[in-house]
Amino acid sequence: MKSVNDRVVLVTGANRGIGKSIVEGFFKAGASKIYAAVRKPETLESMVRTYGDRLVPLRIDLHDPDSIIAAAKVATDVEIVINNAGMLNIANPMASNAVVAMQDEMEVNVYGLMRMAQAFAPILKANGGGALVQLNSVASIKNFADFATYSASKAAAYSITQGLRDMLKDQGTQVVSVHPGPIATDMAASAGLGDLAEPAELVPQCIIAAIESGEFHAYPDTMAKQVGSAYQDFAKNIVEADLMAG
């Protein structure tokens, strides 16, 4: 896929933070229609007033597999799926709530991704391949002890994203793994990263560039680019390489 212009897009977690910025960025880039997928569609009223019928509210709760299946029956024309929705619990490995926190994060950040891929990959295939974009975070590469369970869940999501890249290649679906650092959102503020946070619009800009260039990894902000620069050789020679080839 060389351009996002005139494409039909679906964005989970679309009503605030990075998700809302992705909607705004993709409309600026020429997307023809965006399914704004959220747990509570009524939270999209102001966005509907802004974009009119180009924005289609859709209920998806990554805790609720049936909501994903139902949404896939509606968004049958989608060409780019951006799985942005996720959750962060602040728990270090020794915290009394660490196991419960990680179970919840795995349900959303990992199993939610898998359910989204299973529901929408056939639709992307039917519509020419398209792209599946997963928001994974720098925490998927480097564990941060104060929110270690979140980091671990994102590492698992990143691993699944790699598997999806290989599985969906034959049907012509591009998979993009996005690894933001601190971005100015409520999630970053709750994690105590507000002083390091950079503007959310960097994320859609980076996603669009990755889709247009065919890149698998995308690093939007300063911290992400630092991690990506150090990680680049391993990513190209191991993660993106076909180690099973003879």
Automatic annotation (TrEMBL):
Matches recorded under Gene3D superfamilies: NAD(P)-binding Rossmann-like Domain (3.40.50.720)
Matching PROSITE patterns: ADH_SHORT (PS00061)
GO-annotated molecular function: oxidoreductase activity
Record keywords, A-Z: Oxidoreductase
Keyword presence, Oxidoreductase: yes
Domain of life of the organism encoding this protein: Bacteria
A Pfam cross-reference name: adh_short
Listed NCBIfam families: PRK08264.1-6
Protein family: Belongs to the short-chain dehydrogenases/reductases (SDR) family.
The protein's name in its UniProt record: Short-chain dehydrogenase
Species per Swiss-Prot/TrEMBL record: Candidatus Thiodiazotropha endoloripes
Taxonomic placement: Bacteria, Pseudomonadati, Pseudomonadota, Gammaproteobacteria, Chromatiales
